[in-house]
Specification:
- The chain has about 290 residues and is mainly beta.
- The chain is built from 1 helix and 19 strands.
- The chain folds into 3 domains: about 90 residues, no CATH class; about 60 residues, no CATH class; about 80 residues, no CATH class.
- It has a 6-stranded mixed beta sheet, with no helix packed on it. It has a 3-stranded antiparallel beta sheet with strand order 9-10-11, with no helix packed on it. Strands 15-14-16 form a 3-stranded antiparallel beta sheet, with no helix packed on it.
Length: about 290
């Protein structure tokens, strides 16, 4: 009997030790459990960034460190800086030391590169009710909870006709059409009922814009008036100045050779009257502005 008991201890001891040593490491970066691949990449098993405290958004384990992935090479970055989205459901940010990546799973929802966070809900989910409150999800994955004054039925507050509101990030009174959310109560701020903004990251870009710009919108492109086109401010080509007298002089600036594209440099030439008897050509560098 003693030999049999001793044999059991010898066989089971390694299993117990192995089970106790299987740990993901101590929490770091705000309580998120992280484990390093040894290559400057940390895998997060904790809740997604900006996830609600009640744990509605579960963050399952990410693929193992040796899973095939094309990740950005980040050896120096600002601590906790948003780096981007990877494979749709993984958010990348700089670690707290500024020398590597932290990968945070947004699953089952998507990583939102525009909002620089994980979505908090599925935009395809219709509004729901529990009899008192109404839950709805915006087009960019933001969760809204409303208190219904007279109860809630079939996804709507009783006695309310919901309106659709759109996020106005740049404060130009025009909203991003991709962020719509149906609500009975208007959001406190940052939302409008107009959904015609074409770049909600740039206040200079909105319907009716009359100004031209030689630098692109923050979101890219030169369509500042949101008409679907990039309209050039100057499309005239320079020809020549009068050889005698001042008839036809002065002239407005026009491009030499070819009309440059939006934001591209070129040479602007014009005719300038000299005293009362002659007209001379003048040239200056210029950049094509558009809207």
């Amino acid at each position: 009997m003693r030999l049999r008991a001793l044999w059991r201890l010898v066989v089971l001891a390694p299993l117990v030790v192995g089970a106790c040593s299987d740990s993901h490491g101590a929490p770091s970066d705000g309580g998120v459990n992280e484990r390093s691949s040894g290559e400057g990449i940390t895998f997060s098993d904790g809740p997604a960034l900006d996830a609600p405290a009640d744990g509605d958004v579960a963050a399952p384990d990410l693929p193992p460190p040796d899973a095939p992935a094309q990740l950005p090479d980040v050896s120096s970055c600002s601590p906790d800086e948003f780096i981007g989205c990877h494979a749709g459901t993984t958010l990348l940010r700089c670690n707290s030391s500024g020398d590597g990546l932290v990968m945070v799973s947004c699953a089952p929802y998507l990583c939102n590169a525009k909002a620089q966070r994980c979505n908090l809900c599925d935009p395809a989910t219709p509004p729901t009710c529990n009899g008192v409150t109404r839950e709805s999800c915006s087009g960019d994955g933001e969760r809204f909870t409303e208190q219904c004054q007279s109860g809630c039925l079939a996804g709507d507050c009783v006695g309310c006709t919901p309106l659709t509101y759109y996020r106005d990030t740049d404060g130009d009174s025009y909203g991003d059409p991709a962020t719509g959310v149906s609500l009975c109560t208007p959001p406190t701020s940052g939302y409008v009922t107009d959904s015609t903004d074409c770049d909600d990251s740039d206040a200079k870009a909105h319907p009716g814009q009359t100004q031209f710009s030689s630098t692109p919108r923050k979101g890219g492109g030169y369509d500042f008036d949101c008409d679907g086109n990039e309209t050039q401010e100057n499309t005239d080509l320079f020809t020549s100045c009068p050889t005698s007298g001042t008839v036809g002089c002065p002239t407005p600036p026009a491009w030499e050779g070819a009309v440059p594209a939006c934001g591209d440099p070129g040479t602007l030439s014009y005719c300038q009257r000299i005293l009362f008897s002659s007209c001379r050509k003048r040239s200056n560098p210029g950049t094509q502005a558009c809207r």
